[in-house]
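Researcher: Please predict.
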Amino acid sequence: MTEYRVSFDQVDPVMVPGGALLSEAAVRAGVQIAQPCGGQGRCGRCAVQVEKGEVRRRSTLRLSAEDVANGFALACQTVVVGNVVVTIPEQETIERHLTTERIAAEVKPPPGYDPQRDQSLQRIHLTLPPPTMDDQRDDWSRLQTAVRQQTGITNLTISLPLLQKIGTVLRAENWHVTALIAETSQSSIFNLIHLLPGHLPADKPLLGLAIDIGTTTVTVWLVDLLSGQVIAQAAEYNRQIQLGEDVISRIIYAGKNNGHAELRKLVLQSINTLIERVAQKSSLKNPQSSIVKAVIAGNSIMMHLLLGIPAESIRLAPFVTAVNHLPAFTAQEIGLNMHPEAPVTCLPGVASYVGADITAGVLSSGLDDAIDTTLFLDIGTNGEIVLGSRDWLVTCACSAGPAFEGAGVRDGMRATSGAIEEVWIDSHTYEPTLRIIGETQPRGLCGSGLISVLAEMFLTGVIDKGGNFNTHLPNKRIRQGENGLEYVLAWADESWHGKAIAITRVDIDNLLRAKAAIYAGITVLAESVGIPLESVSQVLIGGAFGKYINVEKAVQIGLLPDKPWEQFNFLGNTAVLGAYYALLSQTARQRIEDIAGRMTYIELSADNSFYEAFTSALFLPHTDAHQFPTVSQVVMESGSHVVE
C-alpha cells in the first residue's frame, strides 16, 4: 500500500498509508486534535487547515464554502491521498480550573471517626526475634507469627514483589519494622502491602486518595486516614474530552482501532497529573511510597474505560454493563501513581447509566437516610435521577445529550475563559447584557449561559413556548442566519474570534430536547411509584454543573420542578464526597454497597410513558402550565405571552 508523508506544525513528519484519516496521522505524530464527538464528524471542532497536498473530504459539516476554499477540513472525516502539510489551529484550552481550595477546608470527617475502628488499614509496629541456630524459621513465617501475636490476624497474604524485599528490610532494620496491613474484601483475609523501616511516629500521616472520574471533570482529594482531614484537593477536565465530549462518543471512539487504549491512557494521565498536584500542594516528595489507599467513584462508562473493559454493550440494547460490582485491585494493576501495592476500591454501580458516582452521591447527600421523600439529581450529559428515602430507592437515567455542556450547540463551549455564563435581555429593547468568564471578549456559550439565554428569550417574548422566534420584534438581533433564524448575543466586532455569537433555532431545539429528557425522567420516575412531585420535600442537586445552575432560570425553562427555592439544595461534587467517606470508613463503603443493592432501576427506553412525558416537556416551560405556576405568573406579569 502506498504511504504518504503528513507534516504537522513543529513535529517531525509521519508516514501513513493512503486512505488514513488526518486524525489517525495526528495520533501517530503525537499531535492532539480535539474530537469532542468521538470522531463522528458532528461537532466540527477538529477542523485543521491543509496548506499543501491532496486530501479527500468525506464530510464538510459545519464548514462554510469559504472555509473549504481556504483549505479547512475535518480531521476525523478527511482522508490522506497524497503528501500533505497541515496546520492545526489553536486548540481550545481549559482556563477555568475546577479546583476550589475552600472545599477541602469545609470537608470534615464523620462525627466520631475512629481510624482504629473504621479503617481497613492497620499500621503495626513489630519487633521480631532474629533467627538463631535454634530458631531457623523463614523470614515470612517469622513476620506472620509476629503479626498474629500482636493483632490476632491468622490469614496474612503478600505479593511477590514485596516478598522479594522483606528479608533485606528486616535485616537492615535489625528486625524492628512497621507493617502496613489492609483488610481485603474476603472475610478474615489481610494483605501486607508495605513494610517500612523502623518504628514510625504514631502521628505520622497515613495517606489515601478519594477520586471521582467524571465525564467532564476528574477530582482527587488527598486524605490523612488517621485524622480524616482532607490535606489537598485538585480537579481538572478529563483529558478524554478531546476524543469524545459525551459518553456515547467515547464508547464509539473506543471501538475504533486502538481507541480503547488511547482513552484509558488519557484518563490515567488525568488522574496521575492530579496526584502529582496534590502531592506538591502537601509537600509530599514520594507518592509512590506514601499514598497507600484509594477509592474511586465514577459513572459506569468511565469505570469501564479506566480499567480497559469493553463498554460497547452499554450503548446497545438491552444496555448491559460488563460489571457493576468490581473486585478490589492494586494501584499497580490499574496504573495509578501511588504505592504499587495500595488497595484500590472501585465503588459499585447499579446499571449502564447509573454508576458509582450516583451510589456515592446518594450516600454523601444523606438520601438513603432521609425520612421524607427526596429527589436527587446529577445533571450532565446524562441526567441521573434517584427518588426515595431511607425505606425505598428508585432510579433512572435519561440521555440529555451534551447540549448543557456546550456541545451540539453552534456557538457552545465548555466553561472556559470567554464563555458567556449569564444573560439578561431587556424586555423593552430586547438587547442582551452578558456576563463572561474571565471578563474578556465572548467566545461562545457554556451550559449555564444556555439555560439563562433560553429563559430570558422566553420571558421577554423573543421566542414563544415552542421555541419559535418572534420576527415582528423591533430588533435586528433576530435575523436570518446560515442555518435559519437566530438571535445574536454578540456581534462579530465584539467577539474574541471576529464572528458573531448567536443562538439558532436548531440550538433551541437541542436545548428543549435536553431539558425535556431530564424533566420527563423526573416525572416518570415519580409516577412509577405513585408519588406526586408536590409531595417531594427536597431536591438535592449534585455534580459540578449543578454548582453553576441558576435555579430560577432552570425552573423557568422547565428543567427543574417548580418548587420553592428553599427546597433546592446544591451539593457540589457528591461523588467525590461519597468516595471520601468510603475511603475513611468500612461502614460507609458497605452502605454504598447496600445502596446499590437497594436501588430499583427503571429503564426509560422500555417505558412507553416516557415518550409521552418527553413530548409534553418539549415546550417552555411545559404543555401543562399548572405544573409551573410561578413561571405562569411571571409570564403573565411580563405581558409577553399567554400561557395556556
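Model: The longest helix spans residues 505-528.
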